[in-house]
Every structure is written in C-alpha cells, then in structure tokens.
From TrEMBL:
It is found in: Cytoplasm, Myofibril, Sarcomere, M line. This is Leucine-rich repeat-containing protein 39. PROSITE patterns: LRR (PS51450). Component of the sarcomeric M-band which plays a role in myocyte response to biomechanical stress. May regulate expression of other M-band proteins via an SRF-dependent pathway. Important for normal contractile function in heart. It comes from Umbra pygmaea. SUPFAM superfamilies: L domain-like. It comes from the Eukaryota. One of its GO terms (cellular component) is M band. Pfam families: LRR_8. Keywords: Cytoplasm, Leucine-rich repeat, Muscle protein, Repeat. SMART domains: LRR_TYP.
Length: 355
C-alpha cells in the first residue's frame, strides 16, 4: 500500500510540472505574438510615415491648385495613405505603370483634373461619377476597354481624352449627359462608327476620331451644331453624308487616308471651312490647282488636297454629271447632285466612255 501511494504522488507531481510548463509555454508564445504584432504595428506605422513623406514630396501648388505630380516612377497601385491629402485638385500621374484607378478616388471631392495618361490602366471605376467638380479626364494610352455609364454624372466635365486604348470601341449612351463637354479625343481605337452619345453632345467643339475603323458617318451628323474641328484621318470611309454640308460651324476637317471616291458637291458652299484635307483617297477625278503667282499671300493656304482642291473637284464633278446627262438626253437636275445621284451615275459611268 505504501508503494502505491508513492507512485500516485509521483504521477501527480509530474502532471503538475507539465501543466506548469505548458502554461508557461503558452504565455511565452502569447508574449511573442504580442511582440510581433507590436513590431508589425510599429513597422506599418513607420511604412505609412515613409509613404506619406514620399507623397508629400510629390505635392505642389501651381496656379492656385494643389497638384499631385508623379512621373516615370514605379507606382502600380496608389496607397490608401493618399486619402490624407483630400485637398488635391489635380492628379498628374504619367508613365508610372499604374494598373488601377483606386476606388477611393471618390474621396477627392475637389479634383478638377485627373491626368493618368500613358499607364497600364484597364478600367475606369464607377466611383468616377462622384467627382462632381471634375473638368478634365485624361486616360489616353492605357488599356481601357469599357467606359462606365457613371461617367455621365460628371456634369462639369469639359475635356475627355481616351486616345490609344487599343480595344475601346463603344461609349455608353450616358456620355450624352455631359452638357459641358467640348473636347473629345477617341483617336487610335477600334470604333467603326461615331457613337450616338457623341452626336448628342450639345457643346462638343473638337472631335478626334483619327486612326479608328470608321466605315461611315451618321446621316444626322449636322446635329453637331457647335463642332468646329473634326479629325477623321486613317479610317475606312468610302462616302460622306450630304448633311455634312450643313455643319456651318465646321472650320477644320481632316479626311486624309480614307477610301473616299467622291466629295459631295454641296461642300463647295461651306464657306466657314478654312482647312480641309482629302489627301491619300482614291477619288474618282484628278484635279490640278492652277499655278499660284510667286510670293502670293495665298501660298501657305494652297494645300494641294485642301479647300481650293475641294472647290475645283466639286465643279469638275458637276461638269462630268452634266456631260453624262447631255449624252443620254436626260434633263439636268434642278438642285445639286446628291450621293444618291453619285451612285446612279457611277453605274452609268461604267457603261460610258470617259470624257
């Protein structure tokens, strides 16, 4: 009996020792975890301070605006610490490899200019629609494929540049809600037509859709009443709608490197059109400009495929049509020939010797 008591006491002692050791181990482990957490918090706070200090170096004041300017550095994402600068009015972030526009961009209610050109951005977040003071959104030469309808909520937006985004080929109808937008750059994308939302923009004055895949222009293009500059070079246009002649505000029209066969004759009456370029199109007729006097003040304006070329081309086209009508004893139309007549006389010309 005595031996049993000793054995039982020994087991109890060992159990007590192990329980003490286990408890101490757990306490030590918790201390280590707390210490690591504390170090992590210190490190995190220290990193935040470093980031804030680095961002602070990028903030400057120019023309009365608080601007964040970063160029040619590596910032694939923007740190959350940026929200400590709510007074920012402009972001100028160029060639920094930025891949996303942070959703917390909506926190910057004072933003007027958002310039994120030449990065690797793939999408524009819906939160962009909360920037009610935004006037300029510049996201050219990125990888944006779609535009959120919420952008139409930026009612003070005046300038939108989306050039060179590779696969971009559509705009949401909500874009037409941008009542102050006067400058739109959609060049070097994949558009096959001018979006209806663009035609509806009431204040649009400057449009660049060069380097797309436009195959035709909308018949109601004359609804763009305030448009004075339109760049349509390097597309696939074969014809122009007659209603382009009613764009009375149009001052500059570039149509080089398309597939145009004819010029609507009524364009001759577009007196406000000061610069036009039809170079590198397979036009039906050859027109040569008369030699200008040496040292003429008009030398600089005599673009070979420009305004005077257009006028002479329209006159030549009328002569050809009249001659064809006379040859076939058909009365001349009372008004200027239209694109419909062009189609008819094209078939006629194929069966008639050249004049």
């Amino acid at each position: 009996m005595t031996g049993v008591s000793v054995c039982s006491g020994t087991v109890s002692s060992i159990k007590s020792i192990w329980e003490t050791r286990i408890k101490k181990t757990k306490e030590d482990l918790k201390k280590q975890q707390d210490l690591k957490a504390g170090v992590g918090r210190v490190r995190h706070n220290w990193e935040d301070r470093i980031i804030l200090a680095k961002l602070k170096e990028k903030v400057l004041i120019a023309d009365g605006r608080v601007i964040l300017r970063i160029e040619q550095e590596e910032w694939k994402t923007l740190p959350r610490a940026l929200v400590h600068f709510p007074q920012l009015m402009e972001w100028q972030l160029h060639r920094i490899g930025l891949q996303t526009i942070p959703h917390f961009v909506s926190s910057f209610e004072n933003l007027i200019v958002l310039d994120l050109s030449r990065n690797s951005i793939t999408e524009i977040p819906q939160e962009i629609g909360k920037l009610m003071k935004l006037r300029e959104l510049l996201v050219s030469y990125n990888r944006v494929q779609t535009i959120p309808g919420e952008l139409g909520c930026c009612q003070n937006l005046e300038k939108l540049e989306l050039a060179g985004n590779r696969d971009l080929d559509q705009l949401p109808l909500e874009i037409s809600n941008l009542r102050k937008l006067y400058h739109l750059d959609l060049s070097l994308n994949q558009f096959t037509e001018i979006p209806e939302s663009v035609v509806r923009l009431p204040a649009l004055q400057w449009l660049d859709m060069g380097g797309n895949r436009l195959q035709s222009l909308p018949h109601d293009i004359h609804r763009m009443e305030k448009l004075h500059t339109m760049w349509l070079q390097r597309n696939e246009l074969e014809t122009l709608p007659d209603n382009i002649c009613y764009m009375q505000s149009l001052d500059t029209l570039v149509l080089s490197n398309n597939k145009l066969h004819n010029i609507p004759s009524m364009m001759e009456d577009m007196n406000n059109l000061r610069f036009v370029n039809f170079r590198d199109n397979p036009l039906t007729y050859e027109v040569k400009l008369p030699t200008a006097p040496q040292n003429s003040e008009e030398d600089e304006d005599r673009e070979m495929f420009g305004r005077e070329f257009m006028r002479l081309y329209c006159q030549e086209a009328r002569k050809r049509v009249t001659a064809m009508l006379d040859m076939h004893n058909i009365n001349s139309p009372q008004s200027n020939y239209t694109s419909e007549l062009n189609v008819n006389f094209k078939a006629l010309a194929e069966s008639t010797p050249s004049l």
